[in-house]
Amino acid sequence: MTPHVMKRDGCKVPFKSERIKEAILRAAKAAGVDDADYCATVAAIVSQQMQDQSQVDINEIQTAVENQLMSGPYKQLARSYIEYRHGPRQPA
Predict the structure, then answer these.
(1) How far is it, in rounded angstroms, from Cα 43 to Cα 41?
(2) Which EC number(s) does the record attach to this protein (predicted)?
């Protein structure tokens, strides 16, 4: 079963594991991590976790990615992904 993703704007789109991999690779590049195999592995694990659901929220996907990255060897990649997810910080 291929789940659908409920985006922030409320629309549903088909789940695409490639989008997860691309987001992780962007965060890896920003963090100076050059390990595409690791990024692909994290994306595959998260994608597999989502496959049993008919619909999944984008926040659920992003939280799963964060959890995988935080338990991995590249803490700077996890930080980069979290910062990407939450967008630029506003000055206090």
Answers:
(1) 5
(2) 1.17.4.2
Q: At residue 55, what are phi and psi to the nearest 5 degrees?
A: -145, 140
**Burial of residue 81 (number of CB atoms within 10 Å: 0-12, 13-18, 19+):** buried
DSSP 54: S
The tens digit of pLDDT for each residue in 33-91 reads: 999 999 999 999 999 999 999 999 999 999 999 999 999 999 999 999 999 887 765 45
Q: How many domains does one find in the chain?
A: 1
Residue 91 falls within a domain, yes or no?
no
Q: What is the pTM of this model?
A: 0.89
